[in-house]
Amino acid sequence: MAYLELKNIRKSYFLGKEEFPVLKGIDLNFDLGDFVSILGESGGGKSTLMNIIGGLDRNFSGEVLVKGKLLDHKQEKELDRYRRETIGYIYQSYNLVSHLSVLDNVLVSLDMTTLNKKERESRAKELLQKVGLEKQIKKYPNQLSGGQKQRVAIARALASDPKVIIADEPTGALDAENTTEVLELLNDIAKEGRLVITVTHSQAVADAGTRIVRLADGQIESDERLKPAFATTDKEMLGSRPLPLMASIRTAAKHFKYNIKHNSLIILGTAIGLFAVVLFSGLGNGISGYIGDQIAKVANPQSVTVSRYSKETDGESNAAVLLGGGSKQAFTADQIKQIKDTSHVSKVENSYSATNVNTTYNGKSATVTSLTNWTSEDTTDSIKAGNAPKENEVLLDETTVTKRLGFSNYKDAIGKEVTMTYQVQNGQSATPVTFTAKIAGVTKANSQGIAQGLTSTQTIQAAMEKSGLSTAPTSLNLKVDNMDNVKATTKKIDQIKDSSSNRLYKTSSVMSIIDQAQTYVNLATNVLATIAGISLIVSALMIIVTMYMSVSARTKEIGILRAIGESKGDIQWLFITESLITGLISAIFATGLAFLVEAGINAALKGTADYAFVQITAGNVTTAFVLAILISLLAAMLPARRASKLNPIDALSAD
Ligand SMILES: Nc1ncnc2c1ncn2[C@@H]1O[C@H](COP(=O)(O)OP(=O)(O)OP(=O)(O)O)[C@@H](O)[C@H]1O
């Protein structure tokens, strides 16, 4: 049984509806160890026949059998495998991959064998030595002579250890000396027990083989044996495997490196957009953080004030009735318990406040604009001298004690007793509340000149009781266990309703102010980041255009890679990975630059405020990488599909 059998091969080309038959029923058998030359007039269909034998052409009728087994040329994958395992190509125009070195050109084919990296490299070197190119392995194809290029092509064709070598006019572009050398190499290949099928115009070349087949008018004119075929061996052939993704990545990386100048520009374009997105996001984080920080400095964001919700005043508590215990605005014990029992509420304290409190000492009087009770919300930070007020004690500010109550030194006021009186509006009438308290300490003067006093909760409650007022608070001060729970907790309290579905409480916290400020900052950040994002669309277009150009420029390479057995998918990955490499390097470059600028801006502003105004988070960096990957994937998708869909024969004939 012949190794390769062709049965009734017919092939026509169509121009419009007009049919041009090229092969009109070819029946041929080929044996291993033969060096067959196919001779025929120009345009006689020799290359067409070779493409069919080589598994590049699927559009024909008839049968190709390998070792007696029908090759299903309708199955693309089966043909990919056939080219990968069984066929090695040598062309008149060498068809080397221009951006790969001599060694890499041979390694491309070896990537589809089961050899490990070291073995692949040593086999490539061995083959290059065999064709006399051991000293040229680092050169690129454009640095070689025609004869040298053809020898690289021979080494590549042999790399995957194929049984059949197809050589389409292998000496067509060579001088006499190189022709002889190449023919010797082909003869040696046949001697190894392989089948060499070569197409030629030259009788001299044909005479170098063991058999000559003449084609005329699409049919076999003659089939002449010159010498017996060489003996075949049962030597085990190299194992083959589909191209691993890593190999596509390597080839993509090599092309990327080869084209580095051009690629740098694309990277720069993409990186600028990504950099702006990362930096603006970081700036947004920094500014919102700063605002939150500043607000948190003056008030505890975990602290929430709750008052009774009133429809009439549109939810606003009336300051004049704040101390009007027993009024509609006061909390009942059950309500306080209800709030205390709300999840994440860790502490609830009654909050009282009185306005315009007349304070007298030793005949001198002062008006304390706001008197409140000391709660866990208050810190001793603002106390200049003395300590927090205990029972029957009060804290007054420095201006009040020195300028109004006549103490020459604020410290002298400590321990002195003052009388405090204020009015509580209770319906139509006003009830006076009076108590005496010892000055426990002096606080820093209020920057707006507002006189402030702080007394203990018991003191104010006792004073209210003495005046016949209820101590039910109109305002509660509650603590939320964790900053992250403030929003949800206040929302929950705001939503509490009584049995007739009336809203009961109204909360206010600095968290809502921080939130609002941050909403504006986020809005501004997002607008800026979107503008930066638009530049990314431009980058994506740039990558698409470049990729399309690259597909056109690399059409021949695509044909070569398909011919050595790479599948459509492999070609697609080749372009996608190159685009991904561009995207990833852009993202690395962009984030690196953004971190540098972050450090620069933060260092420059350190004098203004000791705060990092740019805060690039891991999330921002991730976003940049995800964007880069998305852009490069999307941009590569169409060109990569186009590349993979190219007909390998057309691709090979590209200039
Ligand atoms: N893609 C194609 N579309 C239409 N006609 C084609 C196509 N490819 C080849 N042909 C025609 O088919 C015929 C056979 O072409 P082929 O290249 O197989 O001939 P050949 O014997 O190899 O010629 P040469 O010795 O000049 O290389 C020619 O007439 C050619 O014009």
From TrEMBL:
Pfam families noted in UniProt: ABC_tran, FtsX, MacB_PCD
Membrane topology: Multi-pass membrane protein
Superkingdom in the source lineage: Bacteria
Intracellular or extracellular location(s): Cell inner membrane
GO molecular function: ATP binding
Alphabetical UniProt keywords: ATP-binding, Cell inner membrane, Cell membrane, Membrane, Nucleotide-binding, Transmembrane, Transmembrane helix, Transport
Principal location class: membrane
Record SUPFAM superfamilies: P-loop containing nucleoside triphosphate hydrolases
Domain ABC transporter: 4-242
InterPro entries given in the database record: AAA+_ATPase (IPR003593), ABC3_permease_C (IPR003838), ABC_transporter-like_ATP-bd (IPR003439), ABC_transporter-like_CS (IPR017871), MacB-like_ATP-bd (IPR017911), MacB_PCD (IPR025857), P-loop_NTPase (IPR027417)
Transmembrane region(s): 264-284, 527-551, 571-596, 616-638
Family: Belongs to the ABC transporter superfamily. Macrolide exporter (TC 3.A.1.122) family.
Protein name listed in UniProt: ATP-binding cassette domain-containing protein
Organism expressing this protein natively: Fructobacillus americanaquae
Biological classification of the source: Bacteria, Bacillati, Bacillota, Bacilli, Lactobacillales
